[in-house]
Amino acid sequence: MSDAHGVARDQLRAFIERIERLEEEKKTIADDIKDVYGEAKGVGFDTKILRKVIQIRKQDKDERMEQEAILDTYLQALGMVELPPDA
Question: Any stretches that span the bilayer, and where are they (predicted)?
Fold first, then answer.
């Protein structure tokens, strides 16, 4: 086998091993997050709402406001919320 093939093989192995380590770290972190949600649930917090809050906090203000406006429009169209008195 040529030296170039050996280098490519070693480089490939290094990438694979890095990915495997990161996947294991990701699993560990996911387990830790699950434990935190379990703790929160244990003291009475609604974990579905916590997940929603986390999702909302990831959005920027403009994106969040746009989604809230669209949601309000849809809910009003379905008669699920009343229109404001000044509308």
Answer: none
Taking the complete model, does pTM exceed 0.85, yes or no?
no
State which residues form the domain around 31.
Answer: 1-45
How many residues can be counted in the chain?
Answer: 87
**C-alpha angle 33-38-39 in degrees, rounded to nearest 5:** 100
* 34-72 tens-digit pLDDT: 999 999 999 999 999 999 999 999 999 999 999 999 999
Residues 8 and 24 in one domain: yes
Verify that 37 and 50 share a domain, yes or no.
Answer: no
Burial label, 37 (beta-carbon count in 10 A; 0-12, 13-18, 19+): middle
